[in-house]
Amino acid sequence: IVAQPGLDQPSIIIQDRNQLSYLIGGLKPNTKYRVQVRARTVAGLSISPAMIELTTNYSLGI
């Protein structure tokens, strides 16, 4: 996994229960990233965040 300095994003709170996706901008092509996802309910935050690993596509330069 490649760490990209300066790409840390603040916590994002999605309050719409129907929202199933979120677009993260500023990522580099053909680069692996890790994203932590946590649930928050009236009882508080989930105990451990889910770690999602993703790789961006190659850029076509268009």
UniProtKB/TrEMBL annotation:
Protein name per Swiss-Prot or TrEMBL: Fibronectin type-III domain-containing protein
Origin organism lineage: Eukaryota, Metazoa, Spiralia, Gnathifera, Rotifera
Source species: Rotaria magnacalcarata
Recorded coiled-coil stretches: none
PROSITE patterns: FN3
Domain Fibronectin type-III: 1-59
